[in-house]
Every structure is written in C-alpha cells, then in structure tokens.
Write a structure and sequence with these properties.
659 residues, alpha+beta, eight-stranded mixed beta sheet, 35 strands, 36% strand, disordered N terminus
C-alpha cells in the first residue's frame, strides 16, 4: 500500500470517529455461525419478523456508562425496520451532546458478506415541556430478509448513574441475553429528583424472572473489587401482543435494582411521602396574588361546589405546557414557574404545576385540599412492595366537600369538573392526609362518565349510493383526548377523523368533517358533524346488502385468539349509543332486517340491538356498555363469546331490493 493510500484511509477513519459512527476502541463483534446465517424461522415464535440472537447490557458506575450490544436476525420483511436505530438523550445546557458514544454497526447477509456501517447519523433537536432532547437516527446498511444486524453503542451520563432496570422481554424472541451491573465502591446518594438525599443502606432488587433464571452477586475480576451483579438467560419469549393488555411493567420479565434507603418498604413510602408532601406544600405556598384572585372569583354566598367550579374554570385557562398548544413551549431563555404563585403570574405550567395551583387556590378559599401523586394506569399497576417512586406519574387534587372527598383532575387539559382522566381513575398513588401521607386508591369513573352518541341520517338511491350526515357527540371524559389533539393541530384532527372513519364505514364511503363544536368548553359535550357519501354496502343479484350498524361495518374484531395469557384491561367504562336511519326510494323494499338481540356479561357489560321498518325507511338502534375495567383470564372465553356474537350482529345485513 502506498503512502497516499495509507494517509487517505487514516483520514476516513478519523472522520468516522469524529462523526460518532466508529468506536474509539475496537468493537467485539461476534462471528455468525452457519446455523445463524441459514436460519429462516424461530421455534416458539413462528410468525416473528425477527429474532434477537443476542442482547447485552453492561452498566459501569465508575465510568458512568451503559453499553449495549444487539445481534438481530431478520426473518421477514417487517424485520428490516430494525436496521433503523433511534436513540434519544437530554441535550445538556451547554449544547454539547456526547451522551451517545461509540456507535458501530454492520449487516451480515446470509451468504456471509459483511457490510460495515459508515453513514453518519441523522440528528435533530426536539423541544419539549421539560427541555431539549437530541434524537439521533442510525441506519445499518442494506438490510434484507436473512441478514443479521449487529450494533453496539455506549450511553455516557455526565453527573450520575441510577441503578439499572433490566428488561428481559422484548417485542421479539431473544435467544440469549447477558446483563451486568458494576456499582461504584463510592458511597452514592440516591438521585431523588433534586430532593434532599437519603442515606443508602444497601443495594436491593425486585425480580420478575422466568423459572431457573436468577441474578448472581460476586466480585468483578478487574482489580477494583467492586460488586458485580450478573444475569444470563436463554430462550426468552417475546412480550405478548394481545388486545387490551395490562401495562407491560406489571408482567414483563425484568429486574429493577435500587438503593435501599429505608429499613422496610413501609418506611420507604413513609419517607418518600414526607418528602413529596413537604415539596408540594413549599410549591403551593400562600401568595398574595392567589388570595386576591380567589377573592375576586368567589363570593361568601357561593356553595362549596360553586366555589370549586369557579376556581376549576380559572385554572383551566392556564396555558398547559403538557399539551403543546398554539403558543408553543416557552422560549429557552424564559423560566418555568418555580411556585404556584409563578404559575399564576406567568399563566402557564405543566400538568402537575397547574394541579398544585388549584390546590393553593382551594386552600386560599378556606377549604381543605390535598395533593395526590398517582400511577398512570396505562403505565403501571402500583406495587407497594417495589420501593420505586418512578411508579408515580401525575398529580391530582382531593378536596373535602360536605364531609366527603372529591377527586379532581385540573392538570389534565379539558378534563370536566368532578371527573378524572381515565389514566388517573381506578389507580393507586401516594396522597396527603391530615396526619401526613398514605398509599391510597382513586375512585373509578362511573360508566355514565364516558359516553359517545352516534347518529346517522342517510338516504340511498336504487343503486345503494348513500348521502347524509353523521353526528357524533362525546360527553364527559370522552372528549378529553380529541380536545387535547385539536389544541395542538385542529387540521390534523380533522384529517385523522376522516382517515379513521373511512376505515370503518362501508368500503368506498367518503367522510368529510363539516364542524366540530365546543372544542374549548371542557364542561360541555363536544359534537362532530360530518357528511358522508358512497356505497352503503355490497350490491349482488339486484340486491343491496348493508351492515346493520354502519359505524361498525369494518371495525377490527376484538379477541380473535381462542386463548389468552394476560387479563383484559379496558381503558374506560363506557356507553356507546348508535342510531341509524336509512331512507330509501318508494320503488324499493326491505327483504331482510336483523332481529333484535340482547347480551349481558357479569351484569355490568351489556349490548342491546333493535331494528324497525317503515314504508320507506329502516332504523337501527344499538346500545353498548362496558361496566367493568378488568376481566381475568378465567373470564376470557365468555367475554370473547359475547364480543363475537355482538360483532356478528353488528354486521348482519339489511337487504334491500326493488319491489
């Protein structure tokens, strides 16, 4: 090799290192076996798009690093997406991000050809309510069915490391996994979100592991005499993929390490509750501006509920930074509110800060109010035996009214007064009390709190072409998420409504939003009016076949598998009422109309279907209610059977023909 070629190769190598594509030291690649190169499927996961041949995580506290190594076999075209690796890290205030280091990757085709990654990552900065995040996207070269994707990278944290959590189960089957944690020998303070530190007594962990797999504890063989926690596992099944599963954190195989800061779990939650309560009380404070505002809003003659409604309506006008509204997030140079007084004067805050302001206002009005921090039900099922404050997500408010406690959710944008957002209802958390704090549950929302009414008035011609209107009314908490989405981008909401409805209405039927009323009125029903046109069903042999409930004509069927691994967790208890009137020409008649039907399950989940016919019209009415949030696996067979019968009834045809 001549001197020019050597210099050119060195220049390329230095450039790739600078771009973060190649490591600063040699990577430890694993040579693929002939069996890996030729494999076309995975026993135990016959329909999988890919399989992890190897997954490794090593946490080194002394070096403040997490190191990851993955080897993935692509089995089907869907697995090719795994060649795109997206990593996020918080952007430091100095703007220099070197959190993600030493990313290196390669693709190995089934014939053994190795293609090294040389492309620099795409990156962008994302601004959110909690600061800026840098997102880097790495693309492994030329992925195809049969390829093995292999990549390694290191995450470096500048100031501290928290104990790791090892998540064994992934979206795909894992053949072999290896985990290590090397805690520092130095005495660390628990990282408690900036709160006063607590003395560390020891290291402990909470395991949910398959039979025969366990964490081992030893001494590292690296002359440091550090502790070494290690775990090896083989043949780890993929996470279940079932309709309406409980949160993965409640059942997925995992190990969560933590620094033991209390003599017992009960003592941990007592200490944690005191720290949180003191922090809430400091944040809430007792500012003059809050007292003056409250005095201007309420009168001595107001009942307690009237006072609460006025205060609740006032905080709903605060710019909620947890929902990206038209005004966007504050500029980088602007400060976030450091107290409830500042939330009021700045007229902005995140969901927790707005809740704290509401509690401050209620207290200023002379009423007793508490803060409660809860687990979001879509993320966690709270486990008091796991001393992990990360189980708690959001603040809600509790107010004493007439000797009873009223649970309110002012921090959830557009949540109606007297209700909780579904993630915050029927969950568990840590709350303030007169005596201190305690673990408690939030009440479930009544089934009537979430209602959707859908009314269609259609006219069809002799060819089965329909025109008409749909009116969809969302009552109570059913309107929250639509309003939040519209606060970000109303045009996007209209487009999404069109796409969603055209995917469930009869094929070929067009849906256009005419109006969305009362988007800003959190305590009023939200109404969507749309026009529709297109074929109402299938025409065959001179007859028109239309699904009885056109709102359900092509909706995906729930609970198709005959068996189930996990309980069914419905998001909400809800009521859906449908009314569909189809007017047809006098030259036509109805030759078949579905009969009425009733279904019940456990006395709380119900379905009622009825139909009636007049000279030139038919009317379908359907009432559906889910009154129970959780169904154990033992109830799955009956639940599946009920849903199968109701979905069949929804799609039974109304048959029209010429007279």
């Amino acid at each position: 090799m001549n001197r020019f070629a050597q210099s050119s190769q060195l220049l390329v190598l230095l450039l790739l290192v600078a771009l973060g594509v190649l490591p600063l030291r040699a990577q430890k690649w694993i040579a693929p076996t002939p069996e890996e190169l030729s494999m076309t499927g995975q026993k135990g996961a016959p329909s999988a798009d890919a399989v992890f041949l190897f997954h490794e995580e090593i946490t080194d506290d002394d070096n403040l690093t997490f190191t990851y190594h993955n080897r993935i076999k692509i089995l089907k075209p869907g697995g090719e997406d795994l060649a795109r690796v997206v990593l996020n890290s918080v952007l430091p205030t100095n703007g220099n991000d070197d959190t993600i280091r030493s990313f290196a990757g390669r693709t190995i085709h089934s014939d053994g050809t190795v293609i090294s990654m040389t492309q620099a990552p795409d990156q962008k900065v994302i601004t959110g309510p909690n600061g800026k995040t840098i997102q880097k996207t790495f693309q492994l070269p030329e992925p195809e069915v049969g390829s093995i994707l292999e990549y390694r990278y290191t995450i470096h944290l500048e100031n501290h490391l928290e104990p790791p959590t090892w998540l064994l189960q992934r979206k795909y089957y894992v053949q072999r996994a290896h985990y290590e944690w090397l805690p520092t020998n130095e005495r660390l303070a628990a990282h408690f979100k900036g709160e006063p530190t607590q003395a560390i007594q020891s290291i402990a962990y909470t395991p949910i592991l398959p039979p025969g797999v366990q964490v081992t504890k030893g001494i590292a063989q690296d002359n440091t005499n550090r502790l070494l926690f290690e775990l090896n596992a083989i043949d780890i099944p993929a996470l279940p993929s079932e309709d309406l599963m409980p949160p993965v954190s409640s059942f997925g195989y995992r190990v969560r390490f933590y620094y033991l800061t209390a003599s017992s779990n009960e003592e941990f939650w007592r200490q944690t509750g005191k720290i949180l309560s003191d922090d809430w009380n400091r944040y809430i404070g007792s500012g003059d501006d809050i007292r003056r505002l409250v005095a201007s809003l309420v009168t001595p003659s107001d009942t307690p509920e009237q006072k609460l409604r006025k205060l609740y309506a006032a905080v709903m006008q605060i710019d909620n930074l947890s929902v990206d509204r038209d005004r966007g997030f504050p500029k980088a140079e602007q400060q976030y509110p450091k107290s409830a007084d500042e939330v009021l004067t700045m007229s902005r805050g995140n969901n927790d800060q707005i809740t704290d302001l509401f509690v401050a206002m209620v207290r200023a009005a002379g009423m007793t109010a508490y803060v409660m921090r809860v687990s979001n039900r879509d993320q966690y099922i709270f486990d008091p035996s796991d001393p992990n404050i990360g189980q708690l997500d959001d603040n809600i408010a509790i107010v004493e009214v007439g000797g009873k406690e009223l649970f309110l959710d002012p921090g959830t944008r557009f949540c109606p007064f007297g209700h909780l957002f579904w993630r915050h209802a029927a969950t568990t958390g840590l709350r303030q009390t007169k005596a201190g704090t305690e673990i408690a549950e939030t009440p479930p929302e009544l089934v009537e709190a979430y209602q959707v009414q859908r009314v269609a008035n259609l006219t069809i011609d002799g060819e089965g072409e329909a025109t008409g209107t749909l009116k969809i009314t969302c009552l109570g908490t059913a309107a929250i998420e639509l309003r939040q989405a519209a606060a970000i981008d109303q045009l996007a909401v209209r487009k999404k409504l069109k796409e969603d409805w055209e995917n469930v209405l009869p094929k070929g039927m067009e849906f256009e939003v005419s109006s969305i009323d009362k988007l800003e009125q959190f305590d009023e029903p939200l109404t969507i009016v749309a026009t529709v046109k297109g074929p109402i069903g299938m025409t065959e042999g001179g007859r028109i076949h239309a699904a009885a409930d056109l709102f359900e004509a092509r909706r995906d069927q729930l609970f198709q598998p005959e068996s189930r691994l996990e309980p069914v967790h419905f998001r909400v208890r809800e009521i859906v009422r449908d009314a569909i009137r189809i007017t047809f020409p006098a030259s036509m008649r109805v030759v078949s109309l579905p009969a009425g039907s009733t279904e019940k399950l456990n006395g709380v989940t119900s379905y009622e279907f009825s139909s009636e016919s007049a000279a030139t019209s038919v009317t379908i009415r359907r009432n559906y209610a889910i009154g129970q949030l959780i169904y154990p696996v033992s109830d799955y067979s009956e639940l599946r059977s009920v849903f199968s019968r109701t979905q069949t009834k929804d799609r039974e045809p109304i048959i029209f023909t010429d007279k």
